[in-house]
């Protein structure tokens, strides 16, 4: 069982190494946009391996459900039967990547593969130490992971749009929530607005209903307006991709489009990190740290949209970049004001 655990652990390590190459080094480039025979074949093998793991896990669960605890030889045999499709899954995933999967598609495949093999690794470890009570938990996780793998994108186009639309959805949800906070704060009477005495505050208190001071409310509105500009910028990218879906890598479009999911992944990370810090209690110094990141991802996205191959009219994007830069300056100035 130790050798088997080590084998699955090697699969996990290889997937994490590929993940670092994709997410950090960004070494995998898109070689097709909509369809590719080599990738389609590798994807079919990948999904078949996930289906085989699902089938073997079902057999494993039936054995473990018996009143009589299975023998070590019996559990080892079943675990080995599960390990073989794990190896097939890893091999097919590598073929799919090198068939021309770009950042978004590679990230999707690796995340799906890791969900399966990390849970598999823990399952085998639990069986090895005879901790059978937790086995149903991990068989369930593996089932879910295998089923999720069936939704794997069929092309770089679909994977790219998924990341972009996810980022837009996160922005939309964040802005809706913050609009609600603003409405609540604006409805409070002036008698409810009071100065905070930081010396009397409990360091461990997280009062989300705390009333903002007039300055904090002004700062909050400025930050919210900035996020709405980022939202507008991100939607322009989605529109650009939708308008050029028929183009399949011609005239420099493929390398341009391959950069989009990386940019949108950055935007998503910034918004997720920033979102919770904007809600009351509002701390201007903390928000200022986020503004630098918002500026970086926002400008990078606008400049990339301006470089779209065949784009005839860039005036809207040029004006948008000027307005965005101006808003960044206004937000910084407002956040640096004292009570």
From TrEMBL:
Domain Cyclin-D1-binding protein 1-like N-terminal, first and last residues per copy: 49-182
GO cellular component, one term: nucleus
Alphabetical list of InterPro entries matching this protein: GCIP-like, GCIP-like_N
Domain of life: Eukaryota
Pfam families recorded: GCIP_N
Descriptive protein name: Cyclin-D1-binding protein 1-like N-terminal domain-containing protein
Provenance organism: Thraustotheca clavata
């Amino acid at each position: 069982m130790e050798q088997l655990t080590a084998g699955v652990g090697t699969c996990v390590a290889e997937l994490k190494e590929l993940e670092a190459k994709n997410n950090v080094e960004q070494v995998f480039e898109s070689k097709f946009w909509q369809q590719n025979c080599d990738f389609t074949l590798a994807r079919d093998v990948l999904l078949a391996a996930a289906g085989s793991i699902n089938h073997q896990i079902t057999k494993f669960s039936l054995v473990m459900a018996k009143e009589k605890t299975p023998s070590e030889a019996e559990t080892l045999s079943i675990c080995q039967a599960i390990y073989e499709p794990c190896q097939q899954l890893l091999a097919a995933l590598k073929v799919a990547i090198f068939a021309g999967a770009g950042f978004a598609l590679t990230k999707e495949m690796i995340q799906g593969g890791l969900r399966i093999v990390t849970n598999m690794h823990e399952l085998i470890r639990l069986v090895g130490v005879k901790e059978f009570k937790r086995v149903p938990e991990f068989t369930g996780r593996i089932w879910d992971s295998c089923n999720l793998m069936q939704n794997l994108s069929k092309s770089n186009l679909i994977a790219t749009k998924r990341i972009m639309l996810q980022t837009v959805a996160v922005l939309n949800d964040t802005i809706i929530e913050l609009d609600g906070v603003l409405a609540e704060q604006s409805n409070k009477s002036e008698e409810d607005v009071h100065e905070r005495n930081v010396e009397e505050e409990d360091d461990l208190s997280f009062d989300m209903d705390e009333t903002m001071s007039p300055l904090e409310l002004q700062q909050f509105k400025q930050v919210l307006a900035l996020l709405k500009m980022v939202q507008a910028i991100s939607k322009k990218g989605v529109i650009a991709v939708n308008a050029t879906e028929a183009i399949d890598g011609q005239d420099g479009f493929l390398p341009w489009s391959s950069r989009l999911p990386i940019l949108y992944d950055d935007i998503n990370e910034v918004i997720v990190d920033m979102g919770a810090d904007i809600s009351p209690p509002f701390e201007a110094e903390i928000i200022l740290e986020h503004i630098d990141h918002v500026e970086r991802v926002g400008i990078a996205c606008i400049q990339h949209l301006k470089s779209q191959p065949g784009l005839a009219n860039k005036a809207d994007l040029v004006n948008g970049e000027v307005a965005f830069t101006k808003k960044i300056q206004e937000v910084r100035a407002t956040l640096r004001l004292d009570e």
